TrEMBL record:
Homodimer. Heterotetramer of two Top6A and two Top6B chains. The keyword DNA-binding applies. Belongs to the TOP6A family. It comes from Halopelagius inordinatus. Residues 70-136 form the Spo11/DNA topoisomerase VI subunit A N-terminal domain. Its cofactor is Mg(2+). Relaxes both positive and negative superturns and exhibits a strong decatenase activity. This is Type 2 DNA topoisomerase 6 subunit A. Keywords: ATP-binding, DNA-binding, Isomerase, Magnesium, Metal-binding, Nucleotide-binding, Topoisomerase. Its EC number is 5.6.2.2. One of its GO terms (cellular component) is chromosome. Pfam families: TOP6A-Spo11_Toprim (PF21180), Topo_VI_alpha (PF20768), TP6A_N (PF04406). Residues 140-189 form the Type II DNA topoisomerase VI subunit A all-beta domain. GO terms for biological process: DNA replication; DNA topological change.
Length: 364
């Protein structure tokens, strides 16, 4: 589907939402909008798509209270703004939307903080079944990058351009755009995709030539990955039939980074089929690595312990492998960063650790 068609679909569905409110008024009903409840207890595993999605529990934004009426008022103002933005072929950031609301004539429509405006955009995505990228809404820059043997064509304001993600970029790599669906993959020599949590480890891999030696596309997740990062990873996997592995620190928060790449997150469960790559495998620091390699560690904080215990019940970590690793970590009461591998030498991660792990997993 062309960008123009996507814009038209987004505009039509936004207008349909506003019309629905008017129809509810006309029929004597209290205007309302039903949204899936965004909690872990309302996530279910979809056997067809192999990702976690929202279940049947819903919450209602209704004008039967002052608080609910304010939410719907803000929704209608946001819809009007987004429709006008699409008609003018403009774009804006989530942060700008928060400040823009200060100019709306109804003071009750102003957002109290950016969390409120962010949540409203997510609500509109869910009920319209259109992504915020097609609303022309952008997050603040994530800075996530690609480095590896991939040639692509991207759309810019100055027209199309072709880029090789090794030969035509500096050490910083190719920065992933807000909407990766505008990218066309032209050619590649990639054998697998390695998603890396931290910038320090990403730089170590590139400095040691890991991307060249193993025909690897290195995706810098930059911590919890942005939607654009997860989307391009899924596209690379699906369209180029490439295995995906995720390399993170050895702590509960990093395991959730892997979980968001593979199975989606509570916050974006309505987009799991668009963003998640269920076939992605975990190659991060394991609790058993901490023991086997005697890595430098930090003690688990109370919040780490609580998070690990929560993950034992998290649907994204229901496997013998994760149960064994999490229980071991709770037993040793330690966590370790990717960079802890440097205690065995700067080349250890590229010469021994990753090649051994990836070979055992059948990736190389």
């Amino acid at each position: 589907m062309s960008t123009k068609s996507d814009d038209e679909l987004a505009r039509e569905r936004l207008i349909d939402l506003a019309v629905k409110f008017y129809d509810q008024f006309d029929e004597g009903d209290i205007p309302h909008m039903d949204i899936p409840t965004r909690t872990k207890s309302n996530i279910v595993f979809d056997e067809d798509s192999k990702v976690w999605v929202y279940g049947d529990r819903k919450s209602t934004r209704s004008a039967n209270s002052v608080r609910g009426a304010r939410k719907l008022l803000k929704a209608t103002y946001a819809i009007e703004f987004l429709v006008r933005q699409l008609e003018e072929n403009r774009s804006s950031t989530l942060r700008e939307l928060y400040y823009l609301s200060e100019s709306w004539d109804a003071e009750e429509a102003h957002f109290n903080d950016q969390d409120e405006s962010n949540q409203l955009i997510e609500d509109l995505e869910i009920v319209s079944k259109v992504t915020r990228e097609d609303f022309h809404m952008r997050p603040e820059e994530s800075g996530a990058t690609l480095m590896g043997p991939l040639k692509l064509r991207e759309q810019t304001r100055r027209g199309e351009r072709e880029i090789h993600c090794q030969e035509d970029v500096g050490e910083g790599g190719y920065q992933i755009p807000n909407n990766p669906d505008t990218i066309e993959f032209i050619d590649h020599d990639i054998d697998f995709i390695l998603c890396v949590e931290t910038g320090g480890m990403r730089d170590r891999l590139i400095e040691n030539g890991f991307d060249t030696q193993y025909n690897c596309l290195i995706v810098h997740l930059k911590g919890q990955p942005a939607r654009a990062t997860r989307r391009i990873t899924k596209r690379l996997h699906d369209e180029l039939d490439l295995p995906v592995v995720v390399f993170t620190d050895g702590d509960p928060w990093s395991y959730r980074i892997y979980g968001s790449v593979a199975y989606g997150s509570i916050k974006s469960a309505h987009l799991s089929e668009y963003l998640a790559t269920p076939e992605a495998q975990f190659v991060g620091i394991q609790p058993e690595d901490i023991v086997e390699y005697d890595l430098p560690t930090d003690p688990l904080a109370d919040s780490d312990v609580n998070a690990l215990q929560s993950e034992l019940d998290d649907p994204r970590f229901q496997s013998d492998y994760w149960t064994e690793q999490i229980e071991l970590q709770l037993d040793i009461e330690k966590k370790a960063e990717q960079q802890a591998l440097a205690s065995r030498g700067l080349d250890f991660v590229t010469d021994e650790y990753l090649p051994t792990r990836l070979d055992e997993m059948g990736v190389i």
